[in-house]
Amino acid sequence: MNSDAASALTAASKRLAAISETPRLDAELLLAHALGISREDVLLGRHTGPVPTAFDALVARRAAGEPIAYITGTRAFWTIELMVAPGVLIPRPDTETLIDAAVAHFRGRPPRRVLDLGTGSGALLLAALDEWPAATGLGIDRSRDALAIAGANAERLGLAARAAFRLGDWADGVSERFDLVLCNPPYVEADAALPRDVAEHEPHSALFAGRDGLDDYRRLAPGFARLLQPGGIAAIELGAGQFSRVAPLFDGQGLTISMAQDLAGRERCLLLAAGLE
Ligand code: GLN
Fold this sequence. Notes:
The protein has helices spanning 3-16, 23-35, 39-43, 54-63, 68-72, 96-105, 123-131, 144-156, 196-201, 215-220, 243-246; strands at residues 74-77, 80-83, 113-117, 136-141, 163-167, 178-183, 228-237, 255-261, 267-274. The protein is α/β, with parallel strands linked by helices. Helices cover 34% and strands 20% of the residues.
């Protein structure tokens, strides 16, 4: 790395330390974005010339609280890179827990049909289609903006032929059965204090779910088993500590209910398995 770039990164990460938990990483991603190259290429010094003047403006936006993924317009998730914009929740590493759990379940017999409820950027559906090359899937969202972004992501990733998207409210009107149902619903309590960059920039409709954060699980649960093929599973994201309150909502449908933890050991994924009949 040339000394200009090195000192620009040091200065930027100092400036970002007040807002970000990952100031150095943020600075590297913003410099890569300003240079139009990958972060790896920045770190390996594969660029010449001065630091672009645009870098300063990008750092200023981040310093004012804008999430890094909305500034660069992209976010890595599982094996894919997604375009993101303020109309969709930024995919989180925690959400990869759902794909991880599905991979463990379907080892050796890949799912053929995948449903993603509240698809947002398309992250879960497209990660699943990338994981299982013979699978096809449907992503549903009630936001037209989100569907436009999800569709563009499917195109960009070369997955459009296997991904369909539909405007809708959760699984209302869905009569098909799926091998795998994925869902990252809103689950934040109404009065929870979210980090400032999340609260001020990400869509509240994708975050908050009523006073106790459980409103959308209550909407999803009735008749949920009708969506699953025999031997199929659903992986539904949970807020940390919500398992014991969410699991009973899905009782009485013949589903086997379990939980998967995220990498930090928090309850993160409700697993619902349909028997083989
Ligand atoms: N895990 C997210 C957060 O803490 C919330 C995502 C969601 O509600 N599905 O910001």
